[in-house]
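User
Please review the sequence:
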Amino acid sequence: MAHSSFQRGDQVEVCSKLEGFLGSYYEATVVANMGTNYVIQYNNLVEEFNDAVPLKETVKAAEVRPLPPEIREANNNGAGFHVGDRIDAYDLDGWWVGTVSSEDNGSGYQSVLFEYTGQELEYPVLKLRVHQDWRNGKWVSSKKTKRTVVR
């Protein structure tokens, strides 16, 4: 799916380029295709002064990608990740790109290092997903192990 192929109503993710939000992706719905830009409405973000109104923005086409397919690891049914795995952690209404920095010790939580901020935080495994990049109209997974696409 090329950038220009998103139409009104399509579910997408928007990559934030704002300082403090680099490396984060937010789910949104396309409101209008304007060629090199899209008007999008975020699914989980609201207007600054009225939290009853979903936030709408005009963003560059290069910042929009389809929703990634869900991937589960075949060797452990997605129960955990390994140190060094590139993942996305769900926090603050979006997905943040990071690297797993500790093994799951049976607690169901893993530490994640965020390169953009230098922070290391713990997350429940259920709030983590395999990081994927959208390149040339195809999903490229960061995982090297055997995996199953669910979606």
Observations:
- The longest strand covers residues 37-47.
- Residues 74-78, 145-151 have pLDDT under 50 and may be disordered.
- The CA atoms of residues 13 and 34 lie 17 Å apart.
